[in-house]
Amino acid sequence: MFIHNAWYVAALASDLKAELFPRTVLNKHVVMYRTSDGKLAALEDRCSHRHVPLSKGCLVGDQIQCAYHGIRFNAGGTCVHIPSQKIIPQRASVKSFPLVEKYGFAWIWMGDRDLCDEALIPDHSVCTSPRHAGEMFYAHANTDYRLGIDNFLDPSHVSFVHLSTVMSQAVTEASPEIMVTPSEVRVRRILRMEKSSPLLKKMMNLEHIDRIQDAIFFPVGNTRIDTTAHPPGQPEGMNMRISTLGIFTPETETTCHLWAGLYRDFGIDSQPLSDAIAKELRTTIAEDVYICQQAQANWDNDAVFIHLAVDQASIAARQILDVLLQKETQVLPPTLVKSA
């Protein structure tokens, strides 16, 4: 079951143009597009007549025309034209969803419209900050979105999964401090004289660094790793700040959409540095997707399942999600140990 009364990233805002863009979100087929005045629209991707996907049709002005019988729907989902008859049944309209552009993303609300509030959109302002350089890219993963959240909250895997990019023995071996509130999980590692990972060495040109690393989760599918680093023993000197984002949107129970990006507050005018970081980040995310997909494909609720000390953060994150789901559906939360 999914949490519906929340904002999810459905696409990058730049993906949506005056053309039909289909995507599955929370097991619902949705078609999105941008109208002639620049506004975003999202409808259920199913004609009310024979259930042909509306995304297989075309835009006629700001209206979607079904590919089967030419029935047209406006940006609000109202059926406005049926070529074979003049009378338009009220039931011919299709469901529409709030779709809002903010921080460079298209955010969709799949739940109760009366609870929809743009102020609840998660803060990803770093993505549009003029004081930072970076970019987001999209990946699809054949895994429960919660496994992606687990992965971001537990950087201790970097020495085994990311040997050529963000590998750090210090991160793997550090004892983290875990802070939990009803709306956030934060995992802090304070590292001294850490040997720079291959990626950090490229960015900072330092063999060793001191840094504070915060891995953060906030509902529903938002994760961020904030890093503040400086030359060893020089906390008052040059501090470099990096935010690495992973934003997860469930597609189905076992697949998800992922948007990832790394934003820095130094060398922001260096395109070669940006290109190098983007290449390394794509490699890192591909490695994360691979290992999470292996876990999903091999998941067995009846097999032995253990938690490690580093799992406290992911357990707390799932408890937050379970509470939100319980409030929405008034059902008991699922057993944490048995959920994939």
Structural notes for this entry:
It is a single chain. The protein has helices at residues 145-153, 158-161, 169-173, 198-204, 271-297, 312-329; strands at residues 7-12, 21-25, 28-34, 40-44, 58-60, 63-65, 72-73, 79-81, 99-102, 105-109, 133-141, 177-181, 184-195, 208-218, 222-230, 240-252, 255-264. A seven-stranded antiparallel β-sheet has the order 11-17-16-15-14-13-12. A four-stranded antiparallel β-sheet has the order 5-6-7-8, with no helix packed on it. With 340 residues, it is α+β, with helices and mostly antiparallel strands. It folds into two domains: 7-120, 3-layer Sandwich (Rieske Iron-sulfur Protein), CATH 2.102.10; 125-329, Naphthalene 1,2-dioxygenase Alpha Subunit, Chain A, domain 1. A hairpin with a 5-residue loop joins strand 3 and strand 4 (40-44). Helix 1 (145-153) packs antiparallel against helix 6.
Write the layout of secondary structure elements.
Elements: E1 7-12, E2 21-25, E3 28-34, E4 40-44, E5 58-60, E6 63-65, E7 72-73, E8 79-81, E9 99-102, E10 105-109, E11 133-141, H1 145-153, H2 158-161, H3 169-173, E12 177-181, E13 184-195, H4 198-204, E14 208-218, E15 222-230, E16 240-252, E17 255-264, H5 271-297, H6 312-329
Antiparallel strand pairs: 1-10, 2-3, 3-4, 5-6, 6-7, 7-8, 9-10, 11-17, 12-13, 13-14, 14-15, 15-16, 16-17
